[in-house]
Write a structure and sequence with these properties.
Elements (H helix, E strand, L loop, with lengths): L1 E10 L2 E11 L4 E5 L6 H9 L6 E6 L2 E2 L5 H4 L4 E4 L11 H8 L3 H5 L1 H11 L1 H5 L10 H13 L5 E5 L7 H16 L4 E5 L3 H7 L2 E6 L2 E7 H5 L2 H7 L3
Parallel strand pairs: 3-8, 3-9, 6-7, 7-8
Antiparallel strand pairs: 1-2, 1-4, 4-5, 9-10
Helix pairs in contact: 3-7
């Protein structure tokens, strides 16, 4: 589904990504972990089109993404849920969801998607007329994910969904992410700071360090690696 080859990105001469190779197959749950500043968010922004690479290729379902502007990429069935939630705070919950459904597939499937979203996140149904800016941090994160789902994506990209949230709220959000993967068959690419939980949820994972892929493989492979144990699991 998504193939990245030799991707390099630089800001003012400083290398943020260096010859990154990454692949996500249809129906997979792939996690990217790594320290702050490793280039994880830059990778997502490059896929979405808000950051331009200096080298490399990105293809999605056989189509050259780098040949398309950012606005066109969302219409291909990719949804990017950015770090920090970034909901439309002055709009209601329902209006936020409709903003996510602006692509053709989202408009076509609006009734079905909205029903599924409210099953996954019943608190959003209770708050549907409430301004998004008045929601709690956890509710805003749920809304950000739900807004991504409203567009009927084939690939859901989640950037640090646990950031700034209490562990119990994070557990609930991870439960919903696993549900849309297992029950709905949605392909997921996740960047996450909670390494153990992220790797245990995925089919495969990548360790990104100083802009390079330092390790990749199954979750068993990554969890058994000495570098991962020491740096991220406190072992």
């Amino acid at each position: 589904m998504l193939r990245i080859e030799g991707l390099s990105v630089a800001y003012g001469g400083l290398k943020a990504l260096v010859e990154v190779d990454l692949e996500v197959s249809e129906g997979e749950f792939v996690t990217i972990v790594g320290p702050n500043g490793a280039g994880k968010t830059t990778l997502f922004k490059t896929i979405s089109g808000t950051v331009a690479p200096v080298a490399g290729r990105i293809s999605y379902r056989g189509q050259d993404l780098l040949a398309l502007p950012a606005a066109a990429r969302a219409h291909l069935g990719m949804a990017h849920v950015p770090e920090g939630r970034q909901v439309f705070k002055t709009l209601s919950v329902d209006d936020n969801l409709q903003m996510g459904a602006y692509v053709a597939a989202g408009r076509r499937d609006w009734v079905r998607n909205r029903k599924r979203i409210m099953e996954l996140f019943p608190v959003l149904d209770e708050r549907r007329d409430q301004l998004a800016g008045t929601l709690s941090g956890g509710e805003q994160q749920m809304l950000a994910i739900a807004r991504g789902l409203a567009g009927s994506p084939h690939l859901l990209m989640l950037d640090e969904p646990s950031m700034g949230l209490a562990p119990t709220i994070t557990d609930a959000i991870f439960e919903r992410i696993r549900a849309v993967h297992k029950e709905d068959g949605l392909t997921i690419l996740l960047v996450e700071q909670r390494v153990a939980e992220a790797l245990e949820s995925c089919d495969r994972g990548y360790l990104l360090d100083t802009g390079r892929v330092a390790l990749h493989g199954s979750y068993e492979t990554l969890l058994s690696d000495a570098r991962v144990k020491k740096a991220y699991l406190g072992m």
